[in-house]
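step: validate -> pass
step: tokenize input -> pass
step: predict -> running
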Amino acid sequence: MSEPDVERRTLRSLALMSTARPTKPPSFSPSFQRRAFASWVVDSIHKRECCFFEKGVREDVCKCGYAKTHHVDEAIKPEDFAGESWDRHRHIREVPTDAFGDISFGGVGQKTGKYVRVSTDTSPEILYQLLTEQWKLSPPNLLISVTGGAKNFYLKARLKNMFHRGLIKVAQTTGAWIITGGTHTGVMKHVGQAVRDYALSSSVQGQIVAIGVATWGVVHNKDTLVHSEGCFPAHYAMDIEGQGRLSCLDNNHTHFLLVDDGTQGHYGVEIELRSRLEKCISRKHLGNKENGVTVPVVCVVLDGGPGTLNTIHNAMLNGTPCVILEGSGRIADVIAQVAGLPVSRVTIALIHDLLKKFFGQEYDGFPDLKIIEWTKKIQDIIRISHLLTVFRVSEDDHMDVDVAILQALLKASKSSEPLGIESWKRQLELAIAWNRVDIAETEIFTEESQWKSSDLHLAMFSALVGNKPQFVSLLLENGVSLRAFLEEEETLCELYKQLPGCLFLRKLAKRVQSSRRKRRPTLGASRTPVHSDQTISMVHVSDEVRHLLGSFTQPLYPPPSKPKQDYSMSIEDSSTSVSKSSKAPLREDNAEPQRELGRDLFLWAVVQNNKELAEIAWEQCRDCMSAALAATKILKKLAEEGRDADEAEDMKELANHYEKHAIGVFSECHNCDQERAQKLLVRASTFWGRTTCLRLALEADDKNFVAQSGIQALLTQIWCGELSVDNPVWRVLLCMVFFPLIYTGFLVFRRDEVIQRETEKDEEMKTMETVTGSVLRTNYHGLDPSGLRRVKVLGCWSRLVGLYSSPQVKFYWSIVSYFAFLFLFAVVLMIDFQDMPSAAEVLLYVWLCSLVCEEVRQLFHDPDGFGFRKKARMYINDLWNILDVLSIFLFIFGLAFRLTTELFYAGKILLCIDFVVFSLRLMAIFSISRTLGPKIIIVRRMMTDMFFFMFLLSIWVVAYGVAKQGILIHNERRLDWIVRGAVYEPYLIIFGDFPTNIDKAAFDIDSCSMNGTDPLKPKCPVLNENQTPAFPEWLTIIMLCVYLLFANILLLNLLIAIFNFTFQEVQDNTDRIWKFQRYELIKEYHSRPAAPPPFIILSHLCLFIRVVVLRRPPLKYKEFKDELTQTEEEELLSWEALMTDRYLLSTQQEQSQSMERRILDTAQKVTTITDRLEQEEETGSAAMVKRLVRLEEQVVQSAKALQWIMDSLKSQGFGAKESQSLTLTTTEETPDTLRNLSEREDGLHVKARQFHYPNSKHTRFPVPEEKVPWEVSFSSYMPTYYAAEDSGDNLDGSESEALDDHRNPGGRTGIRGKGALSRLGPNLNIDLVLTRWRDSQRSVLEYLAVWDERKGTLALPGGPVQSSNDLPVTLKRTMGKNLYEQINELVSEGTKVFEGYVDDCRNTDNAWVETTVLNIHLDRTSQLMGDINHQAMCSHGSLQWQEVSGKTQLGSDQRDSLRQVAELHNRKF
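step: predict -> pass
step: emit ->
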């Protein structure tokens, strides 16, 4: 495999593991993609068409609804054909679809979408594949099914705005799919308008997915969508006025699934397929993970009629939460009105009133039986309160629709399983998938949830990989410990393998493959792992980070001592979280901790250029300043090596951001304590490769950081050495010559300043003690009697060494020595340059030899551990070093030539040129000057500008020179005079040396040579017969004028302008650049021997003996790198952390007071005031409505009172012959009945009144809550008959009488007969609860459970019986005959926990289930206990001992039974 192929394979494997960003598909041409898509659609998706034409209402229209012209030829039969009649199931067939592609709606914005015509029998998996793989939609994190009124309805402005804003916000933030009916009417139109408003808004980014599932047969203008090879695009016209009974597609939806059943004009065809598609999507796991939570589904309801009620009812029975928007109209308002009421108060009469109120004229067409059915469904809906959420604008003004939707999902999740840490984890996983930190704050991280750090580790990993910084902050605030989270290196390794596509990942992939190539020959074929070329470890990360930081640092993640226990993980096996290497002992090569977990997370965020995550992790670092400077170095190195200009610019911007952080932290430290701040700069950081902050800043080229006054003060202090920084220069120079002056106090040393400060402090404390009379201060002071004892006074020798070892003094002696060297050099060149070298010349050679030795020492002196290669690169990059090397080589060549007779003079010339170079090197002495140093930087920049300017000038010089030379001189063959005439003379003209040979008046024939034979004279121009120049004088003068105009005026002024621009540009930065470059000069003279050249050669000799002969380690200087003890470092880092907190606090205060923040706050306040005003306006109208409602209620009560009076009068004989009832709503219940009903509310059966009877096609007659008791009159009650073993539903007289003899004690169920039960009347059932103590201490109570293969859940052993004194026969198969007989003997000794009627879904009016719950407690040491344990081991999970607790996974009835058993044994359930 070639190297590029291996790289691509590694990158592909790394990318497949990344869940943060999807892999980028290969780029094919659009035409190829369309052909591939068309081929897939034709093969996978079908439509339905009629294959038998039969006349319908009209002659030319088939019973399928399509015209005769829309049928194929074989579908049209002869008129005398009498074979069969049209049937939907037999005469509609599936064929490949012919309508798919892109749909363009035209108009403003040119909205486009995608569509396909599908059959009603299409597999939802195929549709999901179409959406995700063919249409490239990202898998959803949430599915929002919007349903409601299909006709246009009015929404109040505020509710409309809240719905639009909330729906789009929840879809945009969570990555949800919105599914609607897709047409331009009703609720679908409102969703489309919300998507349109989103598209016009610039405040949100990303695509909103709005999928319209519509019926193909009701789409208006659908013919424009039909093409056998697809339409790319199909131009669809929305003809609202001419659509008739059909509907137009909504132009704001993004995708359309047009469901076809082969008919036309029939609505509701898509409902079944839409339901199956939603169920299919709800079974998909979030993030395409194999385990974890599935995609949640929520139903949002606006308006709606009876069909919407059926949708809500079915959705909630299937466990889908619903959000009802109160105020949207009709059925939504009906449900909203009764949502907070007890089920017993939701009566048929109340539903009558509400339907009449909210449906208006539609109410008159509703049959009474339908209203009874709807009442039952509404009662079922409000009974499942955890799945129902009503959004009320009046009450929820503080909450938007998006929050209501997400809270509904979390409420449903809480109620679907017992409250526990696993439930909270699932909810947190949902909130992270939705990226809704506000929901997590209010709903998950509450006082009810008790979180441990380990419980949040998976959520932390998901938040980091998913790039959700707000969640990372929230998790850290709520107890996540980075030490526990990143304790295992495998977690950090997994994070690096989950990196999104970035430059660091590509570099890491290259390093992985290169390391595999190096190891493969040594490992051998048999020992190479299968995926060894795709293995990543922290060693690779450490090597790459060290490459970015620099070789002067130590590895951040050193390799383990044993190679076999490498922290490595296969890229293909990313699910492994813990490897055997975690059991390896910790490294003991260094007592200090090598890993800092805040640093690890910060580094992971920085290498992917993630500002938000890096900012959070940086605040968790212990060594914040080093971390910020290391980030600048890494980011600038990545920007330098990257090829993407935009990405490089982002990296540089982030690097500047962290340089500002480093400056801010250091400023806080320096303002608080200068001495500690300077320690931070030169402290060797154990967390960042044992390098210093100062070194990192220099390597990262952080000029702004180095230019800080505190850092410059440190450099000045190092520059002065033991001398005080306040000494005037003239005093230092005087003491250099007359050193005895240092003993007179003429020169101040730093030690003297320290002693003076201690003395002043001591005197101040004594004064305070005298004034205050404090004994405490005296005692404290007595422990340390004198500050003078802590600092010793410098001795005579120490002062002398301190003077001459100061870098400042070394520099001054070097200047003096260099001037002496140049003076000697000049004397030798001008006066004493003999054939044989004189004594002065020999001294010059010795002097130069000492300079060469010093340059060699500087090249090999490497206290920072850069390595020779980097050190040599740094040496060459310095301009002054280049001049040093050039001068030395010129001197060597000049000396070699000078010692030979033939090249003696050439050698002198080289030495003279070398003197020029040495003199230019003299400018380096000004670099230390604060005044002249920045000017040298400006001169260097101007030299660069002038170098490029000379190219522009040379064009004019050569152009004029060649033209002039060709006009004046004919065939000049001497090269030196050609160059003089074409280049040299035009160049001199710029400086005012005008030529005389272009003017005939100034021509002198004696000053030139006719044939060019005289080497000292130029050749004469072409002459006439009268010996005068023949060239056109007017032309040469014009050429000179033009040349002078452009060269002297234009170009020279351009050069001046360039210099001025450079000066203005660099002037502001020269001080900063000078401060940055000052470090290298100070460090050079700090490490330089004290003796100046030529005496320095003696110091070089001593150094050579020490290092090479004696092999002693080089001296280490604490001024630039200080190794602190662990105690000192901990104290310093704690202080730095305090200063960092202060800096962050001040930064937050500045941001809060910034102009942008104030504008945002003002805008938010204006929005809040506007919402309040709108609310007040609506509240006023709502109050009026409430008053009218109360008035209507009073009228109704008055009417009832009048009716009662009239009834009383009639009973006494005063009634009229004909009277009209004033009752507004016919009801059959009395107040006593309602009172009795409310008392029995908790005892009414619910499962026995489910609409669909289990395992059959029969439907129960709807029985509302109030009609359940037999004593309540229910004249409309007409239950169907069903018995599972009967072939028909007909009854004879005897059977009817038998049914009347058996009446369900729980009340009406909506169905007659035996149903699925074995007999009429009670059907006995036993649930056996076998319990034991887990241990002898009786700490845990356990029960025996059996695995129900039919339901796939655990259950109590039991079944139907003939008598409550015997066990169910079905247990023989589960427990075995022997065990069954032993337990059967103990039935009489058992304790009956419960006996009576059970609410079972199989119950009917005439047959019901009665259950006896029997508890038999077993002794742990009994023989029966041993037999049960043996049978449980042999049953392969069919028998299991489970703990008696509230977390048990049993049905609701059996959980109640188990609770009673726990109470029986005094155990908490």
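step: describe -> The two ends are 64 Å apart (CA to CA).
step: cleanup -> pass
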